[in-house]
Fold:
Amino acid sequence: MAYDQKLEARIRDLLGPRTDLEAKKMFGGLCFLINGNMACGVLNGDLIAKVDPERHDALLKKPGARPFDFSGRPMKGILYVGPVGVKAAKDLRSWVETSVAHALSKPPKTGKSSGKKAGKKTAGAKKVPLR
Structure:
């Protein structure tokens, strides 16, 4: 996996011990899901932040933020935040809190309600134990 493990550890510290938290390998990095909804993650040296699409454009103006264009097309509601935007503990905390709040605003995804067809695995997604 290609991601900044120090950034991963900082995010895990902020997320704390949650019973609704799961980590999955996705996008070639690591993503954190709450109740089955993506909150945030790490890819290379960047934070991946899932945010309210209504706040997407405003959040793009924050230092280090840029469109999440993993597939070649920007995805509204997901941002990359480069190292400059998460260097300070308070800035990382703000991004993680924003992402967690968005994940918690969505209905839980469990079992059949996760949107996945029975028996079909999500490509590239692999559960990873939390520390």
About this structure: DSSP finds four helices and seven strands in the chain.
